[in-house]
Design brief:
The structure is a homodimer. With about 280 residues, the first copy, chain A, is of the alpha/beta class. Chain A folds into 2 domains: about 1-165, Rossmann fold, CATH 3.40.50; about 170-275, Orthogonal Bundle (6-phosphogluconate dehydrogenase C-terminal fold), CATH 1.10.3660.10. Chain A has 12 helices and 8 strands. Chain A has helices spanning about 10-20, 35-40, 50-55, 65-80, 95-100, 145-160, 170-200, 210-215, 225-230, 235-255, 260-270, 275; strands at about 1-5, 25-30, 45-50, 60-65, 85-90, 110-115, 135-140, 165. In chain A, strand 4, helix 4 and strand 5 form a beta-alpha-beta unit. The first copy, chain A, is globular, with a radius of gyration of 21 Å.
Chain lengths: ~280, ~280
């Protein structure tokens, strides 16, 4: 069994490790030479190759580059695909990718996927085994993929101990904006708020503790990953940002009026998040 | 050595445990009978007593009630204090408490303290040993406390393996607004944003993963703790909320204009948070 992984960062490198464990011979491709060699040195892949050479004999091709690169590569890869090869992507946005290849003759060989897993780290050094275990794998527009391709990847994800769920591409992107992308915006903005303050008050971070770390952790995330995600999911993300800022304004108004009852009811309602995060995550 | 802890929640219960380890006989006081008995059952304190009885023979009195209750209790406790007793509070706001007792005859026996430690949980069930280890203990307005009282608590905090730092009360409150209180507002607002969406889309949380959990963890925090903190630190918090919302607006504007360069520079700047959270916390 041969597989090719294109893009050897956190996500690509981590799936390469899983594929190795499952018995695949894994060939890696990365536009950055340093990344490619680090992936080889860390044993994420068995060998390196050019994009074209890597497709020879691969039964599975995994596209795990940033979403802007993926948008360019996906149609090119479909052009180059041989019969029986299966291509998946692991991008955080699905609408623009699915649209880009909607009418491609080889569309049925492609399965649009998104593993709901990640960390704030990036690059091949961040790849870890077990990143996907017990997490959701989203498949979008399943009906546009061939039965063979879907069955192939479903079997793979089951072996990786993932739970496969099915979404329309636009629905996925909207959900991702609410439960992932806005968390990143919020963390970035929170980090910027305190970093700005630091310019006039060097010791502002001295008292920072666990709560602060938790809320700004995602602000460490890589711009080359997240700028294209935000841009491709722009409409949904703008909508969620507006909703989020409205909530902040509600808090601000209640605080300015010194309205204890309103503050209490906002917090009590927010406490319902326990129902979500104490169970599933 | 006898100590009294008033308020047996997360913070009071956790310091009671430390005091026990250090050889104190610890008497607990809590306005809620159920909390008091849970604290006794969990072994956080040796015995329970009324507020007045608990002060008999105690060399150290620790006030760890919510900040609104503390604001009322602090002057009353100073009224009741005997010579040589030392009183500390562990509240998250310091300005209003320090002001309230500024001219009290027994002010020197009081040391205004704030341990930079906590979790999103509350009540005696949340008390844990080691909560304060390696964390900062802030002492505010040290010059208003007697040398004896300061030396007493500094020795105690050293035994608890804490690092004592000194702030003016207002400076502490401003810093706390930046590195703690705004994180709570942000988490509450983020939780509300997605909970609102859930009303029209039941499955909105299905794809939530670690990043979401991290940013909303503090939204589980107790309103009875946080409403009075926000109110007592209202002016600083309003200022920080405005700064934070301005950052969100910068992100929103860049995204609306599809300005990749601006998004990238905002994120790169936010990435500097690594310098803070990869080291100290």
């Amino acid at each position: 069994m041969k597989a090719t992984v294109i893009g050897l960062g956190l996500i690509g490198g981590s799936i390469a490790l899983e594929l190795k464990v499952l018995g695949y011979t894994v060939c890696g491709v990365d536009a950055k030479d340093a990344h490619a060699h680090m992936a080889l040195d860390r044993g994420l892949v068995h060998k390196l190759a050019s994009l074209e050479a890597s497709l020879q004999d691969a039964e599975l091709i995994v596209l795990a580059t940033p979403v802007d690169a993926s948008l360019k590569l996906l149609p090119q890869l479909l052009d180059m695909l041989s019969e029986n090869q299966v291509l998946i992507d692991l991008c955080s946005t699905k609408g623009s990718l699915c649209s880009a290849v909607e009418r491609h003759a080889r569309r049925p060989q492609y399965v649009a996927c998104h593993p709901m897993a990640g960390t704030e780290h990036s690059g091949p050094a961040a790849a870890v085994q077990g990143l996907f275990r017990d997490r959701f794998m989203v498949i979008c527009e399943r009906e546009r993929s061939s039965g063979f391709a879907v069955a192939y990847v479903e079997a793979l994800f089951a072996k990786m101990e993932m739970r496969t769920v099915y979404y329309e591409a636009d629905e996925h992107d909207m959900h991702a904006a609410f439960v992932s992308h806005i968390s990143h915006v919020s963390s970035f903005a929170l980090a910027l708020t305190v970093l700005d303050k630091e310019e006039s008050d060097k010791a502002i971070f001295q008292l920072a503790a666990g709560g602060f770390t938790s809320t700004v952790r995602l602000a460490k995330s890589a711009p080359h990953t997240w700028v294209p995600i935000f841009r491709q999911n722009r409409n949904h993300l703008l909508e969620v940002m507006d909703a989020h800022m409205q909530k902040l304004v509600q808090f601000r108004d209640a605080l300015e009026r010194d309205d204890a009852e309103r503050l209490e009811s906002l917090m009590q309602r927010a406490n319902e998040i326990k129902r979500i995060i104490d169970v599933a995550l």
